[in-house]
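Quick illustration for those who missed Monday's session on complexes.
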Amino acid sequence: MVEKLTLGMDVGSTTSKCLILRGGKDILATALISAGTGTSGPRRALEKALEQAGLRREDIASVTATGYGRAAFPGADHTVSELSCHALGAHILEPEARTVIDIGGQDAKALRLGPEGKLLGFLMNDKCAAGTGRFLEVMARVLEKEVSDLAGLDEQAAGMAAISSTCTVFAESEVISRLAQGVEIPDLVKGIHKSVAVRTASLVRRLGVTPPLCMTGGVARNAGVVRALERELGAPIRVPSLAQLAGALGAAYYGWEKEREKA
Ligand code: ADP
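Prediction with adenosine-5'-diphosphate bound:
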């Protein structure tokens, strides 16, 4: 039983994440496809992870789906809320973390965890694109860059061009007009990152900043946002290497716990 294989599928708004776990601890494969709910992304992520591990679907004891599009994912044995899976995944990746900041494609969450990873409280912004990965995607497009280029550009900044608009649409127009004025792209990127950090920091402060802090979700891959958030909160933030896969890991682990209960 302990060696049973479980698969976690995090069907996000922008990205499908899949992870295969053996015995609740060994990660056999991970897959990330830049296409989220309502696309072929989840199926492709599943196929890629199975192929990577040299497995077939029948080898998997249980599939647990989480994320925004979890209900639309066919063939899941369990569907679990994103909050539970992110809390579980973050606790496995960073067992000491007490505050988890998760910024994904269309929402931002702040979670407070107990010593055993129990979810003690949370706050969420899922009403507004500002302060989420979507905001960064929109800005990257205006700058004719990829989101993966933003951290490097931030590092090159000589100063910071502050973005005063809090709404994504107005901020987009603001960036366009600053570009027309000849403001350097790296300085604009730094201002964009600060804008995301200010919004996220206010969410985290309302929940309470209990160290150690850890960041998960795709935006954690952007070191420029992480540094800006550290400056806003005045505290270091740990970023696990599998930050974007935290939800999928939590889902796979949930499936394994269910298998253990059955045994
Ligand atoms: P969702 O679950 O809603 O699909 P994710 O947690 O997968 O969201 O995060 C998606 C976001 O992560 C994107 O909007 C983008 O801003 C960011 N992102 C993804 N890949 C990278 C990368 N390589 N570098 C920086 N940011 C990234």
